[in-house]
Design goal:
5-stranded mixed beta sheet; 52% strand; 22 strands
Length: 312
């Protein structure tokens, strides 16, 4: 029996091998003709692997294009949701990093290219910082009235956000509107973190976000408008000098007993430190008020022109 099968298999062996090869070639031709290899491009949302805790993570692009190659039949039932593009942030710290984009493809697909194949990833540490809130009175009081005291329940607030944004916060301010009031009143004042240009700093949370403020009004006081004289400390670097000082506002209305106001011709600011200042800048300074004298706002902005000393 075995001899018969062996003879049957070996009979015309060369012809049988040729027929098998031809069948394989024909099968490959038919498959390639009916289901050829083709390319496709998919736009995929970029995701993150091993993201460190306590950081804000941003990318220079949020989506990447993945070009793949595979049998045409595979493209019928797949979509963007079947592809993944991600960056692995394992071991990265604060700062900007160039990270390679990695992909995950459906079975049977080959990667042709990824665009872009690397992305810039910025890791910004989430930090906190305490800062004293400032309350600025706006609007005008009623007739024959002036602001005696502004008393906030909240003196200090906590700033929370990315370190790069927190570093740009110069002040936290709240605006207290007088709205023609002549008697004492209270109101809830929203608090805003602003930078040196007076603009709100995005991405920074102020805690608490508002403060309850009591405003005490006074009546029957004498009023007087006097200029403001900025004062600076002598701690400016020796290579620089102060070109000029200008308070904003340049003059301010003070109120108090007529005898208290009689000898006042100007109001000084506190001494402003210039340590580390190397260019023209604006600083907020509190006013030095004599006893019995009140003002609507107790701080002003001082524009300080800094110049490099001429070398002899």
């Amino acid at each position: 029996m075995m001899t018969h099968l062996r003879n049957l298999f070996q009979h015309n062996l060369a012809a049988k091998i040729i027929a098998l090869i031809a069948a394989v070639i024909l099968w490959s031709y038919v498959m390639n003709d009916q289901n050829p290899s083709t390319d496709g491009t998919f736009t995929v949302q970029l995701t993150t692997l091993n993201a460190p805790e306590g950081y804000k993570i941003t990318y220079d692009t949020e989506k990447v294009k993945i070009k793949v190659r595979g049998p045409r039949s595979l493209f019928i039932n797949i979509g963007e949701q079947d592809f993944k593009a991600y960056v692995d942030l394992d071991g990265l710290d604060s700062g900007e990093h160039e990270v390679k984009v990695k992909t995950s493809l459906p079975q049977g697909m080959d990667l042709v290219e990824t665009e872009p194949d690397t992305v810039k990833v910025t890791l910004d540490r989430i930090v906190q910082r305490k800062l004293q809130a400032e309350f600025i009175v706006s609007g005008a009081p009623g007739p024959d009235a002036t602001v005696a005291h502004v008393i906030p329940e909240t003196q200090y607030v906590t700033l929370e956000g990315p370190e790069s944004a927190i570093d740009t916060v110069e002040r936290v301010i709240g605006y207290v509107g007088l709205a023609g009031n002549t008697s004492d009143f209270q109101l809830q004042v929203p608090l805003t973190a602003i930078n040196a240009d007076g603009r709100e700093v995005a991405g920074v949370r102020v805690v608490p976000g508002s403060a309850n403020v009591s405003v005490q009004m006074a009546r029957g006081l004498t009023k007087k408008v006097v200029p403001i004289t900025p004062q600076v400390k002598s701690d400016l670097d020796a290579a620089y000098e102060v070109g000029s000082l200008r308070a904003d506002p340049a003059k301010i209305e003070i109120a108090g007993d007529s005898k208290a106001l009689a000898g006042i011709s100007s109001i000084n600011t506190e001494e402003i430190s210039l340590a580390g200042v190397t260019k023209t800048t604006d600083k907020v300074a509190h006013l030095q008020l004599p006893d019995g004298v009140t003002v609507t706002n107790k701080s002003v902005s001082v524009h300080i022109v800094i110049k490099a000393k001429t070398k002899k």
